[in-house]
Amino acid sequence: MAELFNLQPEWLARRPALRSFLDQLRNDGKLPEPKDFKDWRNQIEVLEKSAETGTFQEDWRLPDGQVFRVIGRPHPKNSVAFLFEDISKAVAIEREYRVELEQMLNVFDALSSANVIFDTNGQAQFCNQAFADLWGQEETERLRGLSTTEMTRIWQDKCAPTPAWGDFRDFAADFGSRSHWTSVVQLLDGTPLWASFSPISGGQILCEFTTLEKTGAAALLRQKHSA
Questions:
Q1: What is the pTM of this model?
Q2: Any residues with CB less than 8 A from the CB of 32 and at least 6 apart, and which?
């Protein structure tokens, strides 16, 4: 405790009351400044008096970037035990991950091709706005969490009959050696799509759909059949 909060061991040895302890932390800048500090201290006092049933948990975010997780638990004889944990590094890593994820999603959303990523459980994890627009959905959120079966039903409703969707379901269910494959499918209005299915890191799947000119689609089909 002395090292974590830079407190004098001699002062702690005098067994200060909880309010004195909190006041000392506040004076040392180790306590966040709530809008109503008196109300916050009263909540702690209530917890202390009702230790048999009360619990307490907060993350203290300090101006210098430190973050302490504080957990209060009932303790015998009308007392309460507090656990203080410095989670600053974990919070910083999580914050950095969120920033990188947001940047990745912004790039993902800016792509002109329609893309969706399925996680290892076969559920749509990320998709861009181009993907939602292509398949007649106003928001990407409506598509996230859909299974491969649910997603291919949307594709089937918007496309001419093709074995590609069944092949994709088999591909998604096969956790063995996956390899990239492609297919040309056709929307009900006759627009051909170049569909690409790729395994990516962590067992995830990237699906990409690109609108093709009919002449280009015919050329691709001829090339595929000749191969």
A1: 0.58
A2: 60, 61, 62
> 78-83: long-range contacts at Cβ-Cβ below 8 A with a sequence spacing of 24 or more?
78/49, 78/51, 78/52, 79/48, 79/51, 80/47, 80/48, 80/51, 80/54, 80/56, 82/56
- Across 19-33, b (16+ Cβ under 10 Å) vs e yields eebbebbeeeebbbe
pLDDT digits (tens, 9 = 90+) for 168-214: 999 998 877 789 999 999 999 999 999 999 998 888 999 999 998 75
Q: Quick one: pLDDT at residue 50?
A: 59
DSSP 3-state assignment of 125?
strand
- As given in the structure block, the two tokens for residue 174 are 């096969």
